[in-house]
Amino acid sequence: MSDLVPLQAVLNARTSSFPGEAAGAGRRGCPLSDLRDRLRRAGLRPTRQRLSLGWLLFGRGDRHLTAEMLYDEAMRAKVPVSLATVYNTLHQFTEAGLLRQLALDGSKAYFDTNPSEHHHFYLEDEGQVLDMPDCGITVDSLPDAPEGMEIAGVEVIVRLRRRTGSRQG
Q: In a 10 Å sphere around its CB, with 0-12 CB exposed, 13-18 middle and 19+ buried, how is residue 104 labelled?
């Protein structure tokens, strides 16, 4: 059975449990009240749509998803939201520092619920993003930033694909 619940159940929740869990049992994220506080601290008003999408985003731990993936989850959870609203909310969350946007290919952007600096593997064949283990990657010889600019960060994305003709075993 899906662990997604209808919008009303999320917004009317009085417990700190997550979809499909008993109250307090094995929490994987922030309770709804924590989500409200998190949005306020980020300077965002906790509207019904932001709370519903935030619940879906952050209630399952760190993960990577596209707007289309979140929209599909919202539809399964009976959250009445348009794809445009999903995109707008993802961009608002990103600007507020709650998400990190990853540009992995020209056709779609992925959003990471872990906004801390870290690197990624991108499985091209599956369109899947994985966090890279912290292995002390260093990037040497960065160019000087243009006048009046500073380097804000460096992201390493290692693209992977299955070898053709190889056998797994």
A: middle
Residue 95's contacts (CB-CB under 8 Å, 6 or more residues apart) are none
Q: Could you give the CA distance from residue 16 to residue 126 in angstroms, rounded to a whole number? A: 34
Q: Give the helix/strand (H/E) hosting 145.
A: none
Dihedral (Cα; 119, 125, 128, 132), 10-degree rounding: -30
Give residue 39's pLDDT. Answer: 95
Whether pLDDT at 66 is above 70: yes
**Residue 13: Cβ within 10 Å count:** 17
DSSP 8-class letter at 98 = S
Q: Where are the beta strands (DSSP E) in the chain?
A: 64-65, 100-105, 108-112, 120-123, 128-131, 157-160
